[in-house]
Amino acid sequence: MLGIFTKNGKETPEPLKATITGTVPEWLQGTLVRNGPALFNFGETSYAHWFDGMALIHNFTFKNGEVYYRSKFLKSETFKTNSAANRIVVSEFGTMAYPDPCKSIFSKVFTHFKNIIPDFTDNGLVNIIRYGEDFYAASEINYINRIDPHTLETQGRSDYRNHIALNLATAHPHYDDEGNTYNMGTAVMYGIPKYVIFKVPADASGVDHSQPPLNKLEKVCSISCRSKLYPGYFHSFGMTENYIVFVEQAFKLDILKLATAYFRGVNWGGCIKLDKNDINVFHLIDRRTGESVSTKYYGDPFVVFHHINAYEEDNHVVFDLIAYEDSNLYDMFYIENLNKDTDQFIESNKIFSPPVCKRFVLPINVDKKTEGTNQVTLNDTTATAVRQKDGSVFCTPDPIFVGLELPQINYKFNTKKYRYFYGSRVEWSPFPNKIAKVDILNRTHKEWTEEECYPSEPVFVASPDAVEEDDGVLLSSIVSNNPEKPPFMLILNAKTMEEVARAALDTSIHMDLHGYFIPSNDK
Known about the structure:
The protein is mainly β.
């Protein structure tokens, strides 16, 4: 049944007007741009993993109570190269390819050792990032592709390495109140690998959009990895008013294995592994000075992909994230697994740990005279932070909710104390069939669900002049395994989780990953 998500998507290059049921709020004006994999074979060759599919960018434009849809494939160099060859010649996360059979394998290995981390792909299929006033399709690689968020045309490629020394970067940046963008990457050059935090100013595009935003990139700081050969993998990070919150995981990237991937026939996914005998270290970095807090905060190993929010309260840093006990999540997305029938899929995936929202609390000022006592003084959490004999602080989390991924908040509350988060409800499938709203204060939740429907990550859009945190709507594109049920854009009341409207479309829509809402007053 889940094979419906591995079928090749198609472009809808011209705006398609949706059929509206209910009433789209008049104040909802703007464009939701989303990204995800949607092309899984070229000629006789096929990708092995869902995260390998070529990126298809699509948008939903809300205008005067109407909804319009458009989609186009990201015209990355990878897409163009594979299309010209009519076969997969560029490696992806779970699929290894050998692009030039005329060259010797030893020549390739030498090239990759020289560059340390090879150029696997520029297929930015994960998210849409804003730098300055420009928008980019991005993944966790050194390349980003600029797109027009309205026409969806691919406008050019940028390489982080031309502006700062790093090989990999996240597709989950943060934006402050002034419009500056903060992001992180890993520098795997020579010597000890480093985690690099950088900032792109709000005015980086220039008045007339003539400046490549990365030209104004500013390095905030770099943090040395704990291991020379095994830097921690990370997919996102947290940010408060004054700090960057970074989890250095025991989920690690094997640099030597990656550098020799072609020689060994190992894909990217085979180069990361959870070391259950290690620890996770929590770094606090001052956003303005780039200095790290000297206290070592750490906890038991877990795997995290998505942070939810972080904020400061009474000399504590509070941060919430989605944690897993193991690193088996990626295995669920191999095409072979997704093509199983429902019963087979459920049975084979019982061993995977569920996603759990966990809250960690880091006391900023640790009492150095107190050993073996909990330093957390907040009264609304069970999270602990216990000072050890060597001065380090061991942290245990407060579990908030089980079974939710792709978390979203009212982003106006990013870096601030908040009450609600939203996400895709995950049960037996990696593809959720519910949307949930979690009330952190009361530890309760509400859900939306409809039979045979699979929602994408819900995006919160605040009502004009909203006062309450949940005053707004959630937007989620819905696909179905029922060919008689057309895909649609769902609009939910974020306060009640009741349907406000849906916009049905007479075209195919792919299951995506992440996106960005652009209000109509944005240029």
